[in-house]
Structure of DUF4262 domain-containing protein:
Amino acid sequence: MTSNRGPRTRPPQPHRATTGPTRGPAAGRLLDTTHVLDNLCDQFQRRYDTLLDTTIARHGWALQGVDSEPAAPGYLYTVGLHAFDHHPELVVIGLRVHAAATLLNTLGDQIRAGHRLATRHQCADFPGWPRLALLDVDPGNCAALLPAANRRYQTPDGPPVDALQVIWCDPLGHLPWEPGWALPHTAQPVLHFPHDDFPDPGDHTDDPFTLDEDTHDSGLDQDEPDDAPTPHPLD
């Protein structure tokens, strides 16, 4: 007579803690997330720089947008005007991208044609706008405001690139610091308020805002409107 014996079992063995590197299949599933993210950021930066180089080589400058935040409106600025004899870059705050791009491209065409825009000038007959004004951006704001331009043109240990803010008026023609400004001041923050009155536009014989008759769009990938832009703050 034979008896059936069940399968032989080994008594459980205690697990031993290891301090060496993980081996076996599990090792391939462990990722150094910091290293991976750094590589992805580097790849994105290289692709962005290549796109920026291509756009500037083709058109003379590029336009870089920054999205709005709960406490600050969005803005658009140029990257590349510095190459025209160290001309300041331009920035427009608080306008829709389409209208801001039209403004910057039109002024960029003038700079490429040899005009040099200067701070504390205004224009009463810019197409589609009752008034525009230019003010230099405080250097303390330029570093954070124009990172793409500074990364490209700022010298090591040097100051940030210069910039001019293109200031638009409300529908009634008032600038933000004037009585009667009809919009919230948060709609268009002014980065450097003037300390005294602007010169009268008629006092300038060489108005930097005067457009050449053959002024045309710069050709950047922007859908141009059928008529001139109107001042519409960002929602």
